[in-house]
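[Discussion] Sanity-checking designs against the backbone

I'm trying to build intuition for which residues belong where. Below is a structure token string of 449 positions. I'd appreciate it if someone posts a full sequence so I can compare it with mine line by line.
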């Protein structure tokens, strides 16, 4: 890094940071940031290192990354049932991928901090009035009026507190028996049970229970942490850099800086400029990093960013999350795979089949079609197999609730039904049933890898 100036947790401030809220009162903002920087970290360096090791395995094809959750978490939905249902659906998907796909699954939620959103436009017109765009609950309110849209720094503090509460419950659920494989049946939700996908899941759960019983019968103990606990990690887009800086801490055990707002932090497709503030900030923290790559990327720039963010070419450090869309993946992915491979870069390849498959339905709802999502995933696997690279993970926007936001799937959710339970404040998510269906399909693909 000889051509690079020295990194500090605030060196990003010398660069241009896109997609930041316009905080109206600097003194008030500084006060909140100061307070945040003295509060305890949300996650710990040791956990972050464990995740990096697991992602390194996934990059070799020895594990598979499942990353998913809301497009945008909401303060008003930070409730025990909501967190539990989201965890359940991710655990179910992980079991399907592990059992039917024969791969250990690294579970990473878009959760406990996914409160900041990049937007394509700074403002929007509501009833003829121009108001700031919604930038996530950590900046302003979704309510479509001028006052609600003015960024409020107290929301950063609230985001920290909500993330802490969410993580606390996740830790209880994953360590305290709720996630035990002995309870694999109990993760199936009532409204899913009656569906074809729910029944497929029940059959799989039965097979797992039989296998556990068999082990116990022949005297192998299943009373071990691998059975009774789940390893679950958190992630979000590292967008609001003041917040991220305030939660950046030096590891007291091994040294080095860690972003302690979540285990894995990713950089969005709109903020990954080589000379931008986001890249500058992320290069100095030791977390595993994701980077979204859409159709507008430049292959050489991607390689230069990899040099900047991962100069030691460490395995597990970089996850490249491609999001080209069903219609464009064939055009963009092969060239990128070849370039990264021939440059000898260690990366984990992950497919986000959501973000470039969004369209506005006739009903006016922003939606995604299950078929397009599946089609981008299929192409992702096929193209990797053709290039001899490893399709190592998937990234979804999903929820444990019975929402009607994406069309299609086994129940053929139609445009007319979107209005029934369209709850997202940002992008449309797969509901629990569609998520299970997706997992069964991916398991098939993994098995044939
Ligand atoms: C997102 O993941 O919600 C997002 C905004 O993605 P991207 O940066 O790929 O557009
Ligand atoms: Co989104």
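Best answer:
Here's mine. Compare freely.
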């Amino acid at each position: 890094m000889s051509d690079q100036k020295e990194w500090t947790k605030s060196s990003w401030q010398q660069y241009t940071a896109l997609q930041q809220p316009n905080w109206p009162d600097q003194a008030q903002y500084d006060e909140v940031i100061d307070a945040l920087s003295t509060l305890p970290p949300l996650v710990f360096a040791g956990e972050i290192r464990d995740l990096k090791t697991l992602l390194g395995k996934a990059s070799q094809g020895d594990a598979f990354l499942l990353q998913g959750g809301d497009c945008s978490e909401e303060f008003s939905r930070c409730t025990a049932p909501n967190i539990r249902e989201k965890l359940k659906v991710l655990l179910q998907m992980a079991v399907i991928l592990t059992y039917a796909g024969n791969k250990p699954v690294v579970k990473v939620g878009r959760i406990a901090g996914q409160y900041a959103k990049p937007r394509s436009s700074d403002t929007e017109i509501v009833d003829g009035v121009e108001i700031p765009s919604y930038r996530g609950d950590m900046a302003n309110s979704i309510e479509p009026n001028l006052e609600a849209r003015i960024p409020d720094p107290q929301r950063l503090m609230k985001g920290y507190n909500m993330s802490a509460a969410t993580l606390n419950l996740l830790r209880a659920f994953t360590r305290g028996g709720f996630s035990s494989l002995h309870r694999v049946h109990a993760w199936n939700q009532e409204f899913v049970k009656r569906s074809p996908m729910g029944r497929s899941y029940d059959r799989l759960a039965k097979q797992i229970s039989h296998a556990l019983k068999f082990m116990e019968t022949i005297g192998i103990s299943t009373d071990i942490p691998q059975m009774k606990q789940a390893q679950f990690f958190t992630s979000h887009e590292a967008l609001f850099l003041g917040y991220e800086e305030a939660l950046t801490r030096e590891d007291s055990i091994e040294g080095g800086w860690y972003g302690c707002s979540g285990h894995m932090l990713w950089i969005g497709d709109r903020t990954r400029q080589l000379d931008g503030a986001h890249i500058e900030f992320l290069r100095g923290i030791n977390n595993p990093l994701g980077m979204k790559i859409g159709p507008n990327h430049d292959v050489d720039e991607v390689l230069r960013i990899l040099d900047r963010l991962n100069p030691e070419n460490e395995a597990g450090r970089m996850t490249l999350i491609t999001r080209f869309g069903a219609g464009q993946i064939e055009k963009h992915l092969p060239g990128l795979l070849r370039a990264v491979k021939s440059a000898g870069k260690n990366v984990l390849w992950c497919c986000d089949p959501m973000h470039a498959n969004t369209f506005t339905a006739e009903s006016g709802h922003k939606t995604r079609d299950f078929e397009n999502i599946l089609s981008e995933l299929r192409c992702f696997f096929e193209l990797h197999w053709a290039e001899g690279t490893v399709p190592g993970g998937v990234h979804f926007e999903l929820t444990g609730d019975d929402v009607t936001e994406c069309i299609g799937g086994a129940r053929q959710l139609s445009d007319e039904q979107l209005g029934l339970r369209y709850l997202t404040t940002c992008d449309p998510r797969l509901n629990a049933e569609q998520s299970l269906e997706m997992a069964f399909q991916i398991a098939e693909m993994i098995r044939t890898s």
